[in-house]
Predict the 3D structure of the following.
Amino acid sequence: MLTKQQLKKISDWLWEAPTTLRAGMRVPARVYATSAMLDEVLRDRSVEQILNVATLPGIVAAALVMPDVHEGYGFPIGGVAAFDREPGIISPGGIGYDINCGVRLLRSELLEADLTDRAQSLAQALFRNVPSGVGRSGHLRLTDRELDAVLRKGVAWMLAQGHGQPEDANYIESSGRLPQADPTAVSATAKRRGRDQLGTMGAGNHFVEVDVVDEIFHAPAATAFGLRPGQLVVLIHCGSRGLGHQVATDYIRTMLKVAPQYGIKLLDRELACAPFASLEGQQYFGAMAAAANFAWANRQLITDETRRAWQAVFGPSANLSIVYDVAHNIAKLETYDVDGQLRELLVHRKGATRAFPAGHPEVPAVYRPIGQPVLIPGSMGTASYVLVGTSQAMTESFGSSCHGAGRRMSRSQAKREVQPNKLLATLKIQGITVAAGSKAGLAEEAPQAYKDVHDVVEVVQRAGLAHKVARLRPVVVVKG
């Protein structure tokens, strides 16, 4: 097992594992964490996993983990790695089973006082409108042709069907569509699993949550994002459901078979991969992009369902506008300055959020003078944060930040240690109204199962990867 003494301390929030630490490492591995955080991180295999990632062909500069890191499948959750288009690889484990799991923030014109005596009604309206739970079906039924259109077009298809407002796509990462999507690369099994799941959040750590803007740290960015103290906002966290999970399953199986044919030696089978330029690599990239489009379409339909619930409680004139939508399980082609040369890289982010700075062409025009909103959900009993991207992230972390608080307990441990009724009582005392389909599932997501989101965000702030804009306090939580 690795020890802190084997890592080089670069600063109070950054540590480095040199290439001499493990045979085959092509680049160093870097860990964003305080000393106390690192002690906790080293208790699981997450740093071991990022050392393994550093051995993969075509990796550039360094393999990185964010302060919310914890052990995952192959790549750690909280991991960032960039690969040359050629001879670099693409790895499903570097993206995760829930392709384009991500977060969307909606803002209202209402204040916390407007929620008085309506919190329970709002919780129930959201719980009715947004189906949740393992395997739950949504209200939308798609034909084969319609599902393929969703996989190709993402949010654009949803808007064409009337599920949203015309300007919504302007405030979504990549406008809610990756053009590389190839529905033919998605298996019939994956399509069957996803066919009736649009508009559903699933279970686990997915949620629809109403928050209050509790504190502003960066007034110019908050103004640009339309955020002000006391305002009611909504966070939506979910992904590509069964369709994305099956895409990952299918291609992990494929890549385990073909990796030896390409001369790829894996230190861990969970790092199954193929050259990005290979037939299998391109097929997976097309399928992953299609699943990402499905996830954006899913959050779009949930936004539509949330707006209807909101208006049922607050009246037909009450509107919710999209602030931004970010993916945190995805691989994207992006351009970076590497040793003085601009290179197009395939950036894998698994449990990490894009954090682009002011002036970047992929930041929505309205936010380009200030930078991209970065959405960091915490646990349902603590807080969430809105950050803004920085130019320093472009040179140090491939334009990436953390994605949440990060688990410190396994789900099974949380279920053993947390009493659901006691948790509900505690949340009620804190002024948090909860609607959930499963008390056991609620225990898995207890605040004590997660790291301190304030500490995680502070590391990101001190490292200069993103700057704090606003803190959000939960008041209504809806889970599967």
